[in-house]
Design brief:
Blueprint lengths: L5 E2 L21 E2 L5 E6 L7 H17 L3 E6 L5 H9 L6 E5 H9 L7 H7 L7 H5 L11 E13 H6 L11 H15 L2 E3 L7 H12 L5 E3 L5 E3 L4 H16 L11 H9 L3 E7 L3 H6 L8 E5 L9 E10 L5 H20 L1 H13 L14 H10 L12 H4 L7 E2 L6 H17 L5 H17 L1
Parallel strand pairs: 1-4, 3-4, 7-10, 12-13
Antiparallel strand pairs: 2-3, 5-12, 6-10, 6-11, 6-12, 8-9
Helix pairs in contact: 1-13, 8-9, 8-16, 12-13, 16-17
Length: 455
């Protein structure tokens, strides 16, 4: 059995740090002995060797069961501003993942393969949470992807910095006022940023939307005819921006980096330079695997909610197939997705096999997520893999004990990434201009967003 082959920059594919790496999708390639070569997304550039060892073990297991398919791992990281270019240029793997927010646009543009028949043949299309499955269902009622994981927004905090600042790491803040107060203490006592927030590559808009939802607001309102109205200019969004202004300018506890995105804020947090930030509840795996965070540093709590109609922004991603590949390779892609992503969610033997392979390679097992199937099945699956769970779930109980009490809210459905991109500049303006006019920024953002929605 061959060892796993990961295509990296300068060797087999064109890639740059922080950008997507991949290989052109085309007719089925002839691998060793006429096997179908299938290029599949693996990890972002920079993942540690243990992650690839775990993938190699899983690849061997798969190829033993399906000897006619030759798996080739491709480094991959989704980033909003570059994804469309990579997709149009055909430089993505045959199987890759996209956020829920991108699936509607992609399927409407004919850029995802129809997997309806495949999912029905596998017999589990009715097992998905219908809200989640809707995200990959087109207006033609066909299904264009396999929801593989979901998350709720969480408050991630550094237990070491809490302790150094004289705060109790077992009692993280439960209100936005407490977050601000603790952030100030951390900054004063440790010299590190007490709180920071993403602001670039569409993540500023993503996190501003999450902060809005947590305060009872919504940035977009759907209409019965399928159109949408921008509602960015609301009291909750204004409060979220005022919070950032106060942490940055009045308390001086935000730090000095105002253009962080998903990768760079994770890097800052893992390096011990940041006390708190908000992101998806599933980020622990990447923090340890890709950014070298020490598990004992990590804490996770729910995002505080307040206001009349608060919720917790949720999201996730979907395993999808390029529509450019031929039928044989598409069948191979479905086989890989079912084996690598889906079976471990619903089958005990597959779940245990996956957990053991990850644990044997010191990869995270048991990171908190939201179920794409049922809560009951998710909680049962945790009992299946309990011997292999190696994440510090006792340090995550402020999240796991409370998340089910919060109302999940999906991301805006229309022009999601485009609206997030224009909101990046709003967040950056507040963080870099002390006298930024929040009212004016929101008025313009709402107008610009509506223009996008009306296209």
């Amino acid at each position: 059995m061959k060892s796993t082959r990961i295509l990296v920059a300068g060797i087999a594919v064109l890639a740059t740090a922080g950008a997507l790496a991949g290989c052109s999708a085309g007719p089925a390639d002839s691998g060793d002995g006429g096997r179908i070569q299938l290029r599949v997304a693996t990890f972002p550039p920079g993942a540690d060797a243990a992650a690839y060892k775990a993938f190699a073990d899983q690849e061997k297991q798969f190829e033993k069961k399906y000897p006619d398919i030759d798996i080739i791992g491709v480094e991959y990281e989704w980033k909003g501003p570059t994804f469309a270019v990579q997709l149009a240029g055909g430089s993505l793997p045959d199987v890759f993942t996209v956020p829920f927010t991108d699936t509607k646009t992609l399927l409407e543009n004919g850029q995802l393969a129809d997997v309806t028949d495949a999912m029905k043949k596998l017999g589990y299309e009715d097992q998905f949470n219908p809200v989640i499955l809707d995200g990959v269902t087109g207006s033609d009622k066909k299904i264009y992807g396999f929801p593989r994981q979901a998350y709720a927004m969480g408050l991630h905090y550094n237990r070491d910095l809490f302790t150094a600042a004289g705060l109790d790491p077992d009692k993280p803040p439960t209100t936005w006022d407490e977050i601000r107060a603790d952030a100030k203490i951390i900054a004063e006592k440790t010299g590190k940023a007490g709180y920071a927030q993403m602001a670039a590559n569409n993540t500023g808009g993503w996190q501003l939307t999450a902060a809005t939802v947590a305060r009872g607001g919504r940035t977009q309102t759907d209409k019965e005819d399928g159109s949408a109205t921008s509602s960015i200019d609301n009291d909750a969004t204004k409060a979220a921006l005022q919070f950032l202004h106060d942490v940055r300018w009045e308390d001086k506890s935000f730090g000095s980096k105002f253009n962080l995105d998903w990768g760079t804020i994770n890097q800052e947090f893992a390096a011990g330079n940041l006390g708190m930030y908000t992101s998806g509840s599933d980020v622990y795996t990447a923090l340890v695997r890709d950014f070298g965070m020490k598990p004992e540093q990590y804490g996770l709590a729910v995002v505080p909610v307040e206001g009349d109609d608060p919720g917790t922004l949720g999201g996730g991603d979907v395993a999808v197939i390029s529509p450019k590949i031929d039928a044989a390779k598409k069948d191979a892609a479905v086989t890989w997705i079912d084996w690598y992503y889906m079976q471990k969610l619903m089958d005990k033997d597959a779940a245990v096999q996956d957990a053991k392979a990850l644990a044997d390679s010191d990869q995270a097992v048991g990171t908190p997520v939201l179920p794409v199937l049922s809560r009951e099945l998710y909680e049962e699956s945790l009992t299946w893999i309990e011997p292999y769970i190696n994440v510090p779930r006792d340090q995550m109980t402020p999240f796991t004990d409370n998340i089910w009490d919060q109302t999940p809210v999906g991301e805006p459905k229309k022009k999601t990434q485009e609206v997030y991109a224009l909101l990046d500049s709003v967040v950056q303006s507040v963080l870099t201009q002390q006298n930024a006019d929040i009212d004016a920024l929101l008025t313009k953002a709402q107008s610009d967003a509506q223009a996008l929605l009306d296209q």
